[in-house]
Amino acid sequence: MTQLTVESTAREMAAAVRRREISARELLELHLARIAERNPQLNAIVSLDEERARAGAAAADESTARGKTLGPLHGLPFAFKDTHDVAGWRTTYGSPLFSDHVPEADELIVERIRAAGVVIIGKTNVPEFAAGSHTFNTIFGTTLNPVDPTRSAGGSSGGATCALRAGMVPLADGSDMGGSLRNPASFCGVVGLRPSLGRVPSWPDANFWETTDTSGPLARNVDDLALLLSVIAGPDVRVPTALADPGVDFATPPEVALDGLRVALSPDLGGLLEVDTEVRRVVEETGTALAGAGARVEPDQPDLDIADDTFRTLRAWLFQADFGALLAAHPDSFKPSLADNIRAGGRLTGADVARAYEQRSTLSERMRRFFGAYDVLVLPTSQVPPFPVDQEYPEDINGRPMATYLDWMRSAYLITATGCPAISVPAGHTRDGLPVGVQIVAPFGADARLLGVARSVERLGLTG
What we know:
Blueprint: H1 10-18, H2 24-42, E1 45-46, H3 50-65, E2 77-81, H4 108-115, E3 119-124, E4 136-137, E5 141-142, H5 158-165, E6 172-176, H6 182-188, E7 191-194, E8 214-219, H7 222-232, E9 262-265, H8 277-292, E10 296-299, H9 307-329, H10 336-346, H11 350-370, E11 376-380, E12 396-397, E13 400-401, H12 410-416, E14 422-429, E15 435-441, H13 447-458
Parallel strand pairs: 2-3, 9-10, 9-11
Antiparallel strand pairs: 1-3, 4-5, 6-8, 7-8, 7-14, 11-15, 12-13, 14-15
């Protein structure tokens, strides 16, 4: 058996299974041993089913033995985010109202990952209905940060990023409305991509024309993330808003030289963000490292003054559309912060929603013009390092109070409102050793080049 460990890359694991240097069953047992070791404390994997996982690994090995065509993720253990419907597997959305829910069909991202050959082991923990960037719910409890278990793993893909960093899974899926892929990636020291709108289509969906939320990939390095993106990206005849580029186009990130790269560096988006001093230091040090590699780094940022109102209005409207009737029927079954946001959506007028869409169009045009002068924008992924796990959200930054549970997430959700692709890449640590990621943003549709830039930044070795 090849000397693979749970810390090996996903590409190495998949290649070893294809070459029959390790079986899917052996690979599964490596990961189940790590889950047994770390999950009881960290609480990242939920609805774990070892018996079904072993049956899935045996079936994968049978396919290998018969010489069948193998998918790019063949034999890799995989746990889906608990907001994604997986046929036959308990899927709770982190809500007590769905604690016993078992979907009858896979949603599209699950279809694609399952078809790529993974061995399903369970789900990854989420906050209630994926709302808020701290992973806790009344069904499974709280997910802890694998670097420092006294800290939050972020959210809503906190279970996924924790499991990745702890070596429980080699890859993970996630979703992102206001930072749910990016914030936990920063907190746990992994890579998370919010792709361009339409790059990773969703089906079924109640509203194809509203794409504030999108699914995306998580991995421990950019090359592995690109592998998963190649599986989940691409058009689908059922989704009219899907971009046409086939997923395979993203399997290998292009080589992008940092020398001459035009970088706009903005630690606080021109004063729109309150940013922890340690996070600001890491962003500024990243700019220094990029300049040292030959990039043309300038302090600049797009005008995003209307992005806060745009995002908050659309988010509240969507929450009301998705959960308003459920909240009315079960008013005591929602966490207060989520219930308040749903009710805020109910108070919106048609004029409010129309204003938000008009502003979103304005933001798109502003970003198009901004990227005429720059290749990428670099800013904080999260405005804070991982915060204490017993807090629902950071109550202040640098001593300045946060008025709501969304205020500290502006660095992510202001970018959401632009529709541009954004990736969080590990870039350093606080002086206490907590992970800090930087967010790299590219023009709409430039996902492949963004991956290339991110890989070049990764090669700088900023995390030591």
